[in-house]
Amino acid sequence: MKGTLRYLAGIAGPNGFGSRSTAEQVTQYSFFPCSNLTAIITGGTSGIGAETARVLAKRRVRVVMAVRDMKKAEIVKERIVREIPEADIKLLEIDLSSLSSVARFCCQFLSQDLPLNILINNAGVFSPNLEFSEDKIELTFATNFLGHYLLTEMLKEKMIDTAEKSGIEGRIINLSSVIHSWVNPVCFSFQKLLHPIKYNGTRAYAQSKLATILHAKALSTQLKERNANVTINAVHPGIIKTGIIRAHKGLLTDSLFLIASKLLKSISQGAATTCYVALSNETKGLNGKYFADCNETNCSDLANDESVALKLCTHSHSLIHDYLHQYHIHSLPNLCLM
């Protein structure tokens, strides 16, 4: 109840920002050197992804939008350029549910010889019914976690190299959700994530968002051990008026949804935490953390479990290694193992 009252009041956290802060507000006085930076954002054709792209472009960051629908992306790009004529926005196609598409995207991006300072794993889906990707993996897990896992691992060395050459800290941001805390540890099994026996859309979504935090925890440890000037953190954007909320209204009873609807953030407020972690000087050096309302906060005990994080990354490593070997792709760098 206290947290709900704080949210409704828009009470700011220790850094002066809170649930009512917008993406423009939290980046207005950023001391992080934004010019000459390059950021990749997945899922930038709508909602907080599009707003994140707009605000980063406004702060002079070159934005590479990794998108599934190129036509929608062109419309978003045109809208941003009309507002910000100097915006530098590139569009590249990706389907995060397809491992081969992710691999193609990475090869295409790396061939352009651009630096990479920021990677924002933003895209997400909610599937109320059991669906499988072309790789025969449950669609929500394939899109929300596994595709982003492969994307990050294939681009990680580029980010480390960019940070070393530029002296500017690289930043990876995984979009998660407070719903990760709903996951029962007994039910969190890698094989069941890939091929659920009794499918529940809400559970699948929550598990995928838990996995994004565990990934951040595991990879942050590896980056620290390598003394790499790159960080990875997870963020909860809040409950936002987006397509995902419309799609998974079924996860709440009608009465709870009515209450939740009063707490919905605007899209600009929803993009604030991502933009803050990406560009703020105050987040420099913070690694493996979890943020909400633009402030560091606590995640669930399960999300903090290093052994669970290691197991998830080990299984993901094995699955992706076997897949890439089938397609004769041998350039994947060292994967996320602690």
UniProtKB/TrEMBL annotation:
UniProt GO molecular function: oxidoreductase activity
SUPFAM superfamilies for this protein: NAD(P)-binding Rossmann-fold domains
Superkingdom assignment: Eukaryota
Annotated InterPro entries: NAD(P)-bd_dom_sf (IPR036291), SDR_fam (IPR002347)
One Pfam entry name: adh_short
Keywords from the UniProt entry: Oxidoreductase
Family the UniProt entry places it in: Belongs to the short-chain dehydrogenases/reductases (SDR) family.
Protein name: Short-chain dehydrogenase TIC 32 B
